[in-house]
Specification:
Length: 390
């Protein structure tokens, strides 16, 4: 018996880069095709199938079509919502796909889903800001740990002992919060690849199915997933649909003209993802003098061209140090700072996080502005527990 494990597909990401958004969808389709060819018994998705709880119709149609290929091959797909899939209202497009029989949500604190192979699955969803930790305290550990058979626990969170270096200042749970006596712990949320033993079983983070930002494209080069057998032998399957060509250009003591000239000499970029990291302090002129839009017309035969100029400065401007954390971490830091500097109590932290999620809603396709505003206000009223007061 073999099964596949993927996570952090973030379908619909790269909204400003249609070529990369399409590549994310193609990576998902390629992964499912490989699973069908390798005759896996079932597929695990450990959160963040979508990049938002309400994806566009285009993204949903493509995803449903790919999932249906697995269904037609009699491959069941088991999933938990991730911090991007789940909304403060509790609604997620995963419910729609579940009703269509394309996947099964195994989120629960005390009930196993049993696969046709007799594998027993259960999981805890991921929430923004690490709020899922409260669900771990509700687990019926005695029942879960006493259950016999081949068991898999799906989770979408980071743990202090296992988190990557860039998250070292982000408070997380301990991995001791995971229930004991499982054969396989299927992780998601942190975008890096990790295999380790955990108590009686194996814990795996497969990393993103496709890189979700410039840094991941630069460092990972591609996404991928795992295929695992019932002896817990693992095989990482890389998904290299396009070659990455990273280019780093130092602007130290250079004029805009010199930088333009250096960029224009780049060769061998045809049908590749061309990554420009341009950094350093220019000797004169402004960043606008480089005119990247015009310059990048020279690379139209590349599959995609992306630039990162976060560390590009001039003598006339102070160097700006950007926060390298993701949006969720920035939100978390801001909330904690607010709690520290005001008379707010810590028990209000969850309400604040949920309110941030509520105000971060996206307008659905075809939804009128007035209906969108009413929906956001209604959910905010529930979060603030103001029903009947306004």
């Amino acid at each position: 018996m073999r099964f596949a494990h993927m996570a952090d597909c973030h379908l619909g990401a790269w909204s400003d880069q249609p070529e990369l958004r399409a590549l994310g969808l193609s990576s998902f389709e390629k992964a499912i095709d490989i699973c069908i060819k390798r005759n896996v018994a079932f597929i695990l998705i450990s959160g963040d199938l979508f990049n938002t709880a309400i994806p566009s119709i285009e993204i949903l149609k493509s995803t449903a079509s790919t999932l249906n290929k697995a269904k037609e091959s009699h491959i069941d797909i088991y999933i938990i919502p991730g911090s991007h899939d789940f909304s403060a209202s509790g609604k997620t497009m995963l419910d729609v796909l579940g009703e269509a029989g394309l996947l099964k949500n195994v989120t629960s604190t005390d009930t196993f889903t049993i696969d046709k192979t007799s594998t027993k699955l259960i999981g805890i969803m991921g929430l923004r800001g690490g709020l899922e930790k409260e669900h771990y305290s509700s687990l019926n550990r005695q029942f879960l740990e006493a259950e016999q058979g081949f068991k898999i626990f799906l989770f979408h969170t980071a743990f202090d002992e296992l988190k990557p270096k860039e998250m070292e200042k982000v408070p997380c749970m301990s991995s001791t919060e995971l229930p004991d006596n499982f054969n396989y712990y299927a992780g998601g949320h942190v975008h890096y690849i990790l295999e380790t033993r955990h108590k009686t079983g194996k814990l795996v983070y497969p990393g993103p199915l496709f890189p979700n930002n410039f840094k991941e494209l630069e460092e990972l080069g591609h996404g991928g997933f795992y295929i695992i057998d019932d002896q817990l032998n693992t095989e990482y399957i890389p998904l290299k649909l396009k070659e990455i060509l990273p280019v780093t250009i130092s602007s130290d003591q250079k004029t805009p003209e010199q930088i333009r000239e250096e960029i224009s000499r780049i060769q061998g970029f045809e049908d590749k993802i061309l990554l420009f990291r341009i950094q350093g302090k220019m000797s004169s002129g402004s960043i606008a003098d480089i005119d990247f839009r015009e310059l990048f017309r020279n690379f139209e035969s590349a599959y995609a061209v992306i630039k990162n100029t976060s560390k590009l400065t001039t003598k006339e401007m102070d160097e700006v140090v950007l926060h390298q954390a993701n949006i969720e971490d920035i939100e978390s830091d801001a909330i904690k700072q607010a709690l520290t500097n005001t008379n707010l109590f810590e028990q209000e932290e969850e309400s604040i996080r949920n309110l941030v999620l509520c105000l971060n809603k996206e307008k659905q396709e075809g939804e009128k502005n007035t209906d969108f505003e009413k929906r956001v206000v209604s959910e905010a009223v529930k979060v603030l527990k103001l029903e009947g007061m306004i």
